[in-house]
Amino acid sequence: MTVIQKKAVNPIAHLSAEDIEIIGKELDAIRDRVLADRGERDARYIRKVVKTQRTLEMSSRAVLLFSLFPPAWLVGTAGLTVAKILENMEIGHNVLHGQWDWMRDPKIHSTTWEWDHVSPADQWKQSHNELHHRYTNVVGKDNDLGYGIMRVDEDQPWHPMHLGQPLWNLLNAAFFEYGIAAYDMELGDHLKQRKLKDPTFRAKARAVGRKIRRQVLKDYVVHPLLSGPSFLSTLAATFTANLLRNVWSHSVIMCGHFPNGVETFEKTSIEGETRGEWYLRQMLGSANISGSRLLHIMTGNLSFQIEHHLFPDLPSNRYQEVAPQVRALFDRYGLRYTTGPLPKQVASAWWKVIRLSLPNRRDSRQPIAPAPLVTSGAA
Amino acid sequence: MTTTASRRPQKVTFRDRLLRLAGAVTTPVLPDDYLDLIAPLRAGAPLRGRIVAVRPQTRDAATLVIQPGRAWQGHTPGQYIRLGVDVDGVRQWRAYSLTSPPDAADGRISVTVKAIPDGKVSNHLVRRIRPGTIVHLDQAQGEFVLPAATPERVLFLTAGSGITPVMGMLRSGLADRADVVLVHSAPTRDDVIFGTELRALAERGALRLVERHTDTDGLLDVAELAALVPDHLDRQTWACGPIGMLDAVEGYWSANDLVERLHTERFRPTVITPGEGGTVTFTGAGVTVESDGATTLLDAGESAGVLMPSGCRMGICFGCVVPLRQGAVRDLRNGDVTTAVPGDGVLVQTCVSAAAGTCDIDL
User: Fold this and answer.
1) Is A121 helix (H, G, I), strand (E, B) or coil?
2) Backbone φ, ψ for residue A354 (5° rounding)
3) Which residue in the set A38, A111, A130 is minimally distant from B311, CB to CB?
4) How confident is the model at residue B9 (pLDDT cuts 50, 70, 90)?
5) Higher pLDDT residue, B310 or A71?
6) pLDDT band at B285 (very low <50, low <70, confident <90, very high)
7) Mutate to test the interface with B, among A33, A114, A130, A211 (most CBs of B within 10 A)
8) Which of A54, A206, A308, B36 is found 20 to 30 A from A377 (Cα to Cα)?
9) Residues 6+ apart with CB under 8 A from A44
10) Could B37 and A114 be called an inter-chain contact, meaning their C-beta atoms sit closer than 8 Å?
11) pLDDT tens by residue, B203-233
12) Distance from CA of A189 to the nearest CA of B (A)
């Protein structure tokens, strides 16, 4: 039985197994239409974003050489924050997904890219692409559900540690890249099971250590030193830029799977899952953010989290183009397309983190008779 | 030539220190990634070139004049370069003979491209590319060159764009040093690439030009050479053209036991015709398996005991991407075929790709 089927209202009770396969075929057709048309326009887009980001980063850092002068600090810090956000969200995340591999440009390729983040690209690719995108929202399989430190679903067992989770979440937001690095190398599991001497873990830890050293040296030593008398103010500027980038990406990512309306699934529900069922799980397990074109770019088009989860390897600039077709499909099959403006979605996700820091209330879920196994195809 | 390894400890130069500092400033990207934005042709950059001019030659051929980057090491007439150009956003590599003399005063090089029907890259280069475009290059290579001691008597047998490496040789003054006969085939007089230039050379007596217009006169039979160029077997001969012509020429020269006087260039790329399944070789592991058109390369490799990188096994995580050195694979999700020849640098997802012909996987 899936987790969602235990709910008072099962959102897919009205779908037959054939419906689900037809939904899958329609989504395949949307994907194929983009692939057939993918080309020069997309290549121009990503090269323009990369060029803009690099120009912005270097000019902001140049301005910060004079960060003792307050307007220079403000302009430089703002520019560097935007550059770092673009680098992680619209470029790094998406390049590492292989969205641009089709261009066969070794300079913009998932196998060669390294990003401005303390988690080395290959470790992040493994935990994010291979585990999170494959097991999206499967309780106990997808560690993105609360990152192993929080309870974000009623079906995750409560532990007194969860009382502190609003605070953990706040700290995680501020130092998100370090949280991600620890998460990608499965630091928590290895600590708990006292397996810190495991050679694979140690190799990963060494790689993270090297990456942290390079990142810290750049942001907190080299650039401040280059600024001479502005040493301290440049240090404060890069710290601020990293902090703001962390809080921003944390907020965007929380909006992807935690807000109200997003469904979770049980481990057994994905055994023998068909292509259609996999698609359906991505449809129900993700939430979008509505907003302007600028917002979409700054979120790395993760504001189209639903489209991204359906088609993780399509170029990010295409998500907003296919979104109306995807949404129409949701409407036609009576499924809930979860979306909302950023403040609303962030508040909804935070409310869940706060609410679930306490154990479930007894009456929070009506016990209902088991529904037929629609998503397992065994009905 | 021998090389001796230096026994001295590596001296850290000022330049090395500067590069290391620059790397610490720009990490995780390289200083080069920033420099590429402003000076893609600088010394030390991967070899690239800027298209300076595109000159139509015939109705389906054009010459590209290229300003190569500072890393360009020069060439010997007759050699070719591999040129990488983005067509519909995808980097494609092809080989083209250099048609420029090696010592051009402006340092520019040129290649002449003939658009072949349905040729994705050749049509782009002949009809769509614009001056200013940056292209990617490899250093010149190829053995289709004149020996250091110029032979006294030379015969060139060419057809179509097979004239291009020969033009490189003629433009570097060969005709002034040797007695040259050129037998060239093209469909019509207007289709002769460099027709005007060749005829002018012939007019001033620099070479003897035999034009064969195959639309009216039919394909040249190698037996006709005896009448056209009576001393052809006494000449050092360079032949470049379609595969059928080269096969006939090679057969004829070896029948006369004179293969050492014949030099050929098979300028057409290997044509890969996709089929269903094929022989898959994992070159690093030294394993070869027969794989059908429904088995993924990942499954084929794993069942043969090759250590394959893998991830989601459903085409979303890109954890299984490996280089396809050459051959053809089919994407099982939508049937798209990807082909590669050595040097293309094509990477494929093994978990959703099956062999569509013989393939070599670099693993």
Assistant:
1) helix
2) -70, -50
3) A130
4) low
5) A71
6) confident
7) A130
8) A308
9) B89
10) no
11) 999 999 999 999 999 999 999 999 999 999 9
12) 21
Is the separation of the CB atoms in B248 and B176 below 8 Å? no
Single pTM value for the model: 0.90
Query: How far away is chain A from the Cα of B112, in angstroms, using its nearest Cα?
Result: 24
Contacting residues for B176 by C-beta, under 8 A, at least 6 apart? B206
Look at residues A216, A189, A192, A219 and name the one whose alpha carbon lies nearest to residue A204.
A189
**Separation of alpha carbons A150 and A137, rounded Å:** 14
- Element (H or E) spanning B184, and its range? strand B179-186
For an interface test with A, give the residue of B347, B350, B353, B363 to mutate (most A CBs within 10 A): B347
Nearest CA in chain B to A88: B28
State residue B5's pLDDT score: 46
| Amino acid present at B115 | A
Q: Which residue of B lies nearest to A104 if distances are taken between CA atoms?
A: B91
pLDDT at B267: 62
Which stretches within chain B are classed as H helix?
A: 14-26, 31-38, 120-123, 163-171, 174-177, 195-203, 214-217, 225-228, 243-255, 297-303
Decide if pLDDT at B2 tops 70: no
For residue B116, how many other CB atoms are within 10 A of its CB? 15
CB A236 within 8 A of CB A81: no
Taking alpha carbons only, the member of A81, A83, A68 closest to residue A238 is A81
Residue B1 has pLDDT above 50, yes or no: no
Please enumerate residues of B whose Cβ is less than 8 A from a Cβ of A.
21, 24-29, 33-34, 36-37, 86, 88-92, 311-312, 314-319, 321, 333-334, 336, 344-347, 349
Hey, is the C-beta of A111 within 8 angstroms of any chain B C-beta?
A: yes
Secondary structure of residue B322 in the 3-state scheme: strand
A41 and chain B in contact, CB less than 8 A: yes
Residue of B nearest to A117 (CA): B28
Provide the residue type at A229 as one letter.
P
* A213 in reach of chain B (CB within 8 A): no
- Give me the count of residues in chain B: 363
What are the φ and ψ backbone dihedral angles of B215, each rounded to 5 degrees? -65, -35
Measured in residues, chain A has a length of 379
Instruction: Indicate the residue type of B345.
Output: G
Q: How many CB pairs under 8 A join A and B?
A: 103
Who among B316, B345, B347 is closest to A133 (CB)? Answer: B316
For residues A138 and A264, the answer to whether their CB atoms sit within 8 Å is: yes
Contact of A188 with chain B, judged by CB distance below 8 Å, is answered with: no
Instruction: Report yes or no: A120 and A208 within 8 Å, Cβ to Cβ.
Output: yes
Mean pLDDT by 10 residues, chain A (379 residues): 56 93 97 96 98 98 98 98 98 97 94 96 94 91 87 89 95 96 91 89 96 97 97 98 98 94 89 93 96 98 98 97 98 96 96 94 50 36
How distant is the Cα of B299 from the closest Cα of chain A, in angstroms?
18
Q: Which domains occur in chain B, in start order?
A: 48-137 (2.40.30.10), 153-265 (3.40.50.80), 278-361 (3.10.20.30)
Is A54 within 8 Å of B27 when comparing Cβ atoms?
A: no
Question: What local confidence, expressed as pLDDT, does residue B316 receive?
Answer: 86
DSSP string, A205-228: HHHHHHHHHHHHIIIIIIHHHHTG
Residues 333-372, chain A, touching B (beta carbon < 8 A): none
